[in-house]
Amino acid sequence: MKIDELICSFPKELKELLEGCRYEENKVGCSDTMVYKVIGKDGKDNRYLKVSSNKFENFNYEVDLLNWINGKLPVPRVLYHGHSGEYEFFLMSEICGKDSSVIDENTDKVKVAKALARGLRVIHSVPIKHCDFDQSLETKLKIAEYNVENHLVDEEDIKSSDPNITPEKILKELQYNRPNSEDSVLTHGDYCLPNIILDKDYNISGFIDWGRGGVSDRHQDIGIGCRSIKKNLGEEMVPVFLEEYGLDKIDYSKIDYYILLDELF
């Protein structure tokens, strides 16, 4: 849908908030959610707008989690959340900087990998005593099972690495090889490079896209982080990331497990 058509569906309050703004569609990522960069009248005060129809994800969980995290971590502020007809709208503030997947010949990949590790340690250090956002393995496996049963897994994507694999086979393997324990921390849930914003000096500006965040095993983030670093920075940067993160002992079996689990999301 074109943005001009979508604007006609905006609730009154959202129209007033965004009057006179321009829109740039953000096509990074694989979600069916529509994402727009909203550019303010003077080119400043930029924001981001997520739009979903009823058949796709809803934003209630992410909105509530961001409100809980705000003040604990550098994350977007929730500016508006509401519905109109078949659409749900979620407006948030912009985290200034560039996402860490933007690589060119001048990028210091070692500094990026180390910044990602330091950022992850910051997330994992947030106290979880009063955090009610459950992303435990029990919960994630139930969601994975639902996704498989309802044909919500991108089979073409998972078959790109193994033409004989199926979502059902992955789910059985995950259930059979389930880890015996969880090292629970606050996790981002999708700790890949496009979701980590850096400033020009390779410092963390903030973390975006928290729809799968919550209390989970730290290897959820470490696994997705390793996979994303390998893809964007090169495999040789993975040890740099892990060393900077500072685990006394690296559980590669858990890293592989959570990477495989992510195939069903």
TrEMBL record:
Keywords: Antibiotic resistance, ATP-binding, Kinase, Nucleotide-binding, Transferase. Gene3D superfamilies: 3.90.1200.10, Phosphorylase Kinase, domain 1. The keyword Transferase applies. The keyword Ion transport does not apply. Pfam families: APH. Residues 29-255 form the Aminoglycoside phosphotransferase domain. Belongs to the aminoglycoside phosphotransferase family. PANTHER family: 3'-PHOSPHOTRANSFERASE, PUTATIVE-RELATED, AMINOGLYCOSIDE PHOSPHOTRANSFERASE-RELATED-RELATED. This is Aminoglycoside phosphotransferase. The lineage of its organism: Bacteria, Bacillati, Bacillota, Clostridia, Eubacteriales.
